[in-house]
Specification:
Helices cover 46% and strands 8% of the residues. It is α/β, with parallel strands linked by helices and 438 residues long.
Length: 438
């Protein structure tokens, strides 16, 4: 009897959650319906399987002790068979990171692969920008992120198109975020000749392009064997499970991490106006741990750590599909780490990528700007130690301690240790599934 009452109680709670989430999804749907484009109608075919009632169905299956079936597969086909049944040899690389971890630099390792790679830089920026008011509901936003990524990996730009503002006209837009950071969107025929009186905002690297034709971008994507996306907006790795399990894709997830103290130091420079509170604390010498800014930092660290714990645990759906890389290791050994990442993805390490890495990791002068991908990489990894006050480094160590320990970042006890380059703050560490059991 107690078990039955427990089941009824859980079901009631689930229905309340479903009702709340449905209201949020309804508001989002209203926004998107107004933005619907003729290229591909707003797809509601998977509402049952991916919506809140699917969550309820999964809950009931868990209560009854049954496992959910792998989507769109026959009863006889196992997940392993599905994941191993790719005939095209296509690879889909998702580079996950947070801001100021060196992800733009590492993303170039794949962007520079050559003519066989279709690379996109931060396409989820548009989603976050439009749905900022819904951002407090992480599960809804995570689902939308996942669906947009799925469409892009399948070369379908219509899910993203609904979030671009101003809305594209006939699938043409001048407003795609950082279009110039994707070589695939800056080459012919996607890069159409610029009209004489078009403003320079349509510039791509090395050439000038007109507004982006998303239909041509989709065709270019379909012509490439491999696809890579870099994003800093996915908060939790486990939200991507349906994407990774999609039998049409061969997704490999690379999670890039960096010392949280270095991230804070970099953000204080790159986003100066948003970090005035931290600068004031640096002057005062005290950082209140109960402040919202500190809680936000802790939340970011916790999200990174929890995602890494999921990946390192290698659940069935992520087996052989997850790799953790520290920015500091890439900065010290860029060619070696690039080779390891390419080996993990199953894509040949191209001569073009090798050449770019060689050119852009030994810069001694001439490269400038906080967003530059040209780095003297070994120096860059240590630069933050001389810009962050010891008070702030201590605060990060207090709230991000578990994350730092997992990734092998050493703590400092005084300012002298922080600024002494002969004191390494990096433990030599290999990351694999047994890491969590050590």
């Amino acid at each position: 009897m107690k078990t039955k009452y427990a089941v009824v109680f859980i079901c009631i709670v689930a229905l309340v959650i479903i009702e709340k989430e449905s209201n949020i999804l309804s508001r989002v749907s209203d926004k998107l319906t107004q933005r619907q484009t003729p290229q591909t109608p707003l797809d509601t075919s998977n509402t049952t399987e991916n919506g809140p009632f699917f969550v309820f169905k999964v809950l009931l299956s868990k209560l009854s002790g049954t496992e959910g079936k792998f989507p769109n597969l026959s009863e006889e086909q196992t997940e392993e068979e599905a994941l191993g049944s790719y005939s095209s040899g296509q690879k889909h690389i998702l580079l996950l990171a947070t801001t100021r971890t060196g992800s733009s630099f590492v993303g170039e390792f794949f962007n520079q692969h050559g003519g066989n790679m279709f690379y996109l830089f931060e396409p989820l920026w548009h989603v976050e920008r439009m749905l900022a008011t819904e951002a407090n509901n992480g599960s809804v936003l995570a689902r939308i992120y996942r669906d947009v990524l799925q469409g892009l990996f399948l070369c379908d730009f219509s899910p993203l198109e609904k979030f671009i503002f101003p809305p594209p006209e006939d699938h043409i837009t001048p407003a795609l975020f950082r279009r110039e950071s994707s070589l695939s969107l800056c080459e012919e025929p996607v890069c159409t000749p610029v009209i004489k009186d078009i403003f320079e905002r349509y510039h791509c690297k090395m050439r000038r392009c007109g507004p982006l034709n998303l239909t041509l971008a989709s065709e270019s994507c379909l012509s490439k064997q491999h696809h890579a996306i870099k994003t800093v907006r996915v908060r939790q790795l486990d939200s991507l499970e349906p994407l990774v399990k999609d039998p049409r894709l061969d997704v490999r997830v690379i999670q890039l991490v960096r010392d949280p103290r270095a991230i804070l130091a970099s953000r204080m420079v790159a986003f100066s106006s948003k970090y005035q509170t931290w600068k004031a604390w640096a002057q005062d010498g005290q950082v209140p741990d109960d402040d919202e800014e500190v809680k936000r930092l802790k939340g970011n660290c916790d999200n990174i750590r929890i995602s890494a714990e999921v990946g390192l645990r290698q659940p069935r759906w992520l087996r052989s599909r997850y790799m953790l890389v520290r920015y500091e290791d890439i900065a010290r050994f860029p060619m070696q780490k690039a080779e390891e990442m390419y080996r993990f993805t199953g894509i040949p390490f191209s001569p073009q990528a090798r050449e770019w890495i060689l050119k852009n990791t030994q810069i001694t002068q001439g490269a400038s700007g906080i967003y530059s991908t040209q780095k003297n990489s070994s120096e860059q990894a240590e630069k933050w130690r001389f810009s962050i006050p010891f008070t702030l480094a201590q605060a990060v160590q207090r709230v991000c301690g578990p994350t730092m320990k997992l990734f092998g970042y050493r703590f400092v006890d005084d300012e002298k240790s922080l600024t002494n380059k002969s004191v390494s703050l990096l433990q030599e560490k290999l990351f694999h599934s047994s890491e969590l059991q050590m």
